């Protein structure tokens, strides 16, 4: 049986960091968008515009990634609450603590991770 209290703290720390990152990214995106509207930049023809568009797409990608990470963390916290934390969602095997320490949000064992978690 894993010490779920310890992992809950890890997950909650991780969640806090993700929430802060999400807030920072959202305000970045908002301010870049506002700056773009103010300057009325033509994305396609103005070199400045394409830089801004690139920054926006980078920030949006990071935002999406963080949202997915947050969803995984929330799901892991739910598994802790449900008492199924630390068991592979595919085969039900106990996930080694070393793996949980590296990726406390993972829902599967190494064998079933297939590169996704
Ligand atoms: Zn498995």
Q: How are the elements arranged and paired?
A:
Layout: H1 4-39, H2 47-82, H3 97-102, H4 110-113
Bound molecules: zinc ion.
Care to describe what's here?
The chain has a domain at 4-84. It has four helices and no strands. It has helices spanning 4-39, 47-82, 97-102, 110-113. Helix 1 packs antiparallel against helix 2 (47-82). The model has no long low-confidence stretch (mean pLDDT 89). Bound molecules: zinc ion.
> What is the number of strand segments?
0
Q: Encode the helix/strand succession as letters.
A: HHHH
Mean pLDDT score: 89
Question: Helix count, per DSSP?
Answer: 4
Over all CA atoms, what is the radius of gyration?
A: 19 Å
* Uncertain spans: none
Helix content: over 70%
Derived structural class: mainly alpha
Key attributes of the depicted protein:
single chain, 4 helices, 70% helix, elongated
Q: In a nutshell, what does this entry contain?
A:
With 117 residues, this protein is mostly helical. Helices cover 70% and strands 0% of the residues.
């Amino acid at each position: 049986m894993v010490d779920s209290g310890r992992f809950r703290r890890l997950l909650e720390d991780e969640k806090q960091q993700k929430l802060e990152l999400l807030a920072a990214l959202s305000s970045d995106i908002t301010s870049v968008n506002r700056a773009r509207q103010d300057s009325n930049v033509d994305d396609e023809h103005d070199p400045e515009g394409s830089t801004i568009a690139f920054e926006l797409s980078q920030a949006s990608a990071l935002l999406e990634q963080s949202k997915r990470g947050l969803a995984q963390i929330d799901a892991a916290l739910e598994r802790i609450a449900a008492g199924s934390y630390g068991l592979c969602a595919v085969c039900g095997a106990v996930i080694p603590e070393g793996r949980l320490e590296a990726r406390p949000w993972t829902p599967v064992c190494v064998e079933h991770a297939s590169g996704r978690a």
